[in-house]
Amino acid sequence: MRLRAIAGDREESVNTMNKQLCAAIAALGIVMGPASHAAPSDYRFELASPPTASGGKSILTLRLLHMPDKKPVTGAVVFEAKADMGPDGMPTMAAAAKILPEATPGSYRIEVQPDMAGNYAISVAAKVQGETETVRGSVTTKLTK
Ligand SMILES: [Cu+2]
Fold first, then answer.
1. How much distance in Å is there from the Cα of 123 to the middle of ligand 1?
2. Which pTM does this prediction carry?
3. Which of 21, 27, 73, 103 is the most buried (most CB within 10 A)?
4. pLDDT reported for residue 20
């Protein structure tokens, strides 16, 4: 009788675990969702290659990834770019940042003119096709003067 009770308890805990697993899978389905229900948080900007520096200017090449399927996004329009030394504890030290045209599809280039060498956060805002809200992102990289 005692043994059966223990077995029963165990069975119950397995059932509870299954229910939790089902709930987790269901929640995951909502979070992942179909691609057509993309949210700005589904995207991430990252450095495509190390920055190239010449004549006091650095050119950063970014790519934009649609995280649910890790696919690069082409045709986005970057309309805002800012650079500051936040990563080095100098968030008020900004550097001029200029948006260059998308030369090859999916390559978003930003030209930064740092006043001092160090680690910079480059923040961008973009319009992405099929996405009503602005997609924002930031990359951190070391720049030379
Ligand atoms: Cu600084």
1. 16
2. 0.72
3. 73
4. 52
Q: Work out whether the CA dihedral 49, 50, 55, 56 comes out positive or negative.
A: positive
Query: 101: which 2 tokens?
Result: 């045209």
Residue type, 38: A
How many angstroms does the Cα of residue 114 sit away from the middle of ligand 1?
Answer: 9
Separation CA 110–CA 142 (nearest Å): 14
Tell me, in angstroms, the distance from the centre of ligand 1 to residue 128's CA.
32
pLDDT of amino acid 7: 46
Distances (CA, A) of 22 to 7, 26, 68: 23, 6, 21
Tell me how far apart the alpha carbons of residues 23 and 11 are, in angstroms, rounded to a whole number.
18
The CA 57 to ligand 1 mean position distance, Å, reads 15
The per-residue pLDDT for 55 is 93
What are the C-alpha distances in Å from 21 to residues 13, 25, 30, 81?
Answer: 12, 6, 14, 42
Q: How do 71-72 and 57-66 pair as beta strands?
A: antiparallel
Residue 36 identity (one-letter amino acid) = S
What is the CA(103)–ligand 1 centre distance, in A?
Answer: 30
Ligand 1 centroid distance, CA of 116 (Å)? 6
